[in-house]
TrEMBL record:
Residue ranges of domain FAD dependent oxidoreductase in the record: 2-361
Presence of the UniProt keyword Magnesium in the record: no
InterPro entries according to UniProt: FAD-dep_OxRdtase, FAD/NAD-bd_sf
Keywords: FAD, Flavoprotein, Oxidoreductase
Family under the similarity heading: Belongs to the L2HGDH family.
Cofactor(s) needed: FAD
Name the UniProt record assigns to this protein: NAD(P)/FAD-dependent oxidoreductase
Amino acid sequence: MDVLVIGAGVVGLAVARALALRGHAVIVAEATGGIGNGVSSRNSEVIHAGMYYPTQSLRAHHCVTGRRMLYAFCESHGVPHAKCGKLILATNEREQAKIESIYTQGLSNCVEGLSLLTEAAANALEPNLVCTAALLSSETGIIDSHALMLALQGDLEAAGGLIAFHAPVERIVQAGTAWEAHVGGAEPTVLPVDAVINAAGLGAQVVARATEGYAQERVPRLVLAKGNYFGCLGKPAFSHLIYPAPVDGGLGTHLTLDLNGRMRFGPDVEWIEREDYTVDPQRAESFYASIRRYWPGLPDGALTPDYCGVRPKLTGPGEPAADFCIESPAEHGLPGLVHLFGIESPGLTSSLSIAEDVAERLGA
């Protein structure tokens, strides 16, 4: 097949690579001038284990399967990563019940390396913590997400695929059982293809609405949830990732480490109406309060604004988190068309598994 993948984020690149390795002619159309300039460049770079998500959900399946695939890919392609593990903390009885529920969910999802820890056991691992209990996930890790995307791009191009930059897709028109993609930019063109995969992230709904014959009522609403991150000055106080019990809309203001050991905190959840990538320094006040519940030793003045991302959510405040939405011919009836909606966390971890799923749905 001649295949067009829209979006050169981690999921788009993974899908394009999977199809190119199967022998298809693949072009990735990217609206910006480089890979991973959207959601993929503004996350916590965590490899998630998969214990948060309902069993049988796409999130649970793709996170667990994708995590195993991702560690193998990192090893085979020399992508920097570290399986450092993480602790999910309880600081009261209500949170303790919550982490026990996460533990049970993780076992149901076939997540390896989970163990419930007493306060003493958690403190033996991380002496600076204050908690009443913790859940240890030894399979959680961190990754250099840009190196991952470069490796995916390398495999794609080695298999004959290519990426067209500054190539926004403005319209997708049916041409019998195939498609014509109207691509804008400096040199507008009409590209005939057999299949189209919409992996445009925050722009996925716009692309779907510009797809001829795709029922508009099938396009889910886009809800924007901004996540702010703050860097932390000073010597690292922890060797594991540290997560509080989850909160509405996210996993709580947690501590992650980069591959150099630098600590950063976030993301929080800030519901917004339009894309905005400024970090308000005043939000540090709420970060201090959240963090000191489990790390009272956080020094005054240690937090500095770092960066932020925007999650492409399908549900809003107070609503149950939506599953990944993969709209393929089996769902909408149009041959050779796949729309990917709401691919937020754990999208990076799930990317290689989502790619295999898309290829199978296309019969590729």
